UniProtKB/TrEMBL annotation:
Gene giving rise to this polypeptide: queE
SUPFAM superfamilies (alphabetical): Radical SAM enzymes
Protein name: 7-carboxy-7-deazaguanine synthase
Annotated keywords: 4Fe-4S, Iron, Iron-sulfur, Lyase, Magnesium, Metal-binding, Queuosine biosynthesis, S-adenosyl-L-methionine
Cofactor requirement: S-adenosyl-L-methionine; Mg(2+); [4Fe-4S] cluster
């Protein structure tokens, strides 16, 4: 992954795309008016990843998928249409912790977003600056169907750190009913709550079919079910 020069590390972000207004498509804020900053780079490589343009050179021309933006660039973009909800996603946003913290602090100082969410895999602990600035961490620990080894995708100290922040919700991507038992083991081991279960899929027919499959079993466990609203509306279009 191409990163800014050391002298710029605290004021420049490697970004894949910025977009909005749109709707938050997943988790507890589904349907909210939102703007997105999608950061470039990921240290994981899930076999079903729906944003390969952030890291996967076998599927995308990564040179064309990244640009360096300063904090002021992003603040100016937000100032043109302040966000009710700003979602910082990826890739993995916490790979660029210092500049993300500074960006979020500046957004709070200038009141450019009412709420801020970070989408993260739960494998990198956030800095204190980030934790103080966000409204919520949407944490998505990866299950075995991601193709990753457990030590890559499950970092106990990080999960506990995020749980202790009081700002984490836990959003699990599910393909099959057996995945619910794997979620239950993580919930019981690390005290993860609240839980949101979301079907894996990049087209509306798959998302709807898996939601229907999951609905009753998720209800039986007293968990929450998340759709993928952007997929239902716009299929797999970028920037929506």
């Amino acid at each position: 992954m191409k990163l800014p020069a050391v002298s710029d590390v605290d004021r420049e972000l490697v970004v894949n795309e910025t977009f909005g207004p749109t709707f938050q498509g997943e988790g507890p804020s589904t349907g909210r008016y939102a703007h997105f900053v999608r950061l470039f780079g990921c240290h994981l490589s899930c076999i079903w990843c729906d944003s390969p343009q952030t890291h996967d050179a076998t599927r995308c021309d990564l040179a064309d998928e990244q640009r360096v933006l300063s904090i002021e660039d992003i603040l100016s973009w937000l100032a043109a249409g302040p966000a009710d909800l700003l979602v910082v996603t990826g890739g993995e946003p916490l790979l660029q912790p210092h500049v993300v913290g500074r960006l979020l602090g500046a957004i709070r100082e200038r009141a450019l977003a009412t709420d801020i969410e970070i989408e993260t895999s739960g494998t990198i602990a956030p800095t204190d600056m980030i934790t103080s600035a966000v409204t919520r961490f949407n944490v998505s620990p990866k299950l075995s169907h991601s193709g990753l080894r457990r030590h890559q995708r499950i970092r106990p100290a990080v999960l506990r750190d995020l749980a202790d922040s009081g700002k984490a919700v836990w959003k699990f991507v599910v393909q099959a009913l057996d995945d619910l038992d794997e979620i239950q083991e993580l919930v019981d081991t690390y005290g993860l709550h609240p839980v949101w279960v979301m079907p894996e899929g990049t087209d509306s027919s798959t998302v709807l079919a898996r939601m229907r499959m999951l609905a009753d079993p998720v209800l039986a466990r007293r968990w929450n079910l998340s759709t993928r609203l952007h997929t239902l509306l716009w299929e797999n279009d970028r920037g929506r």
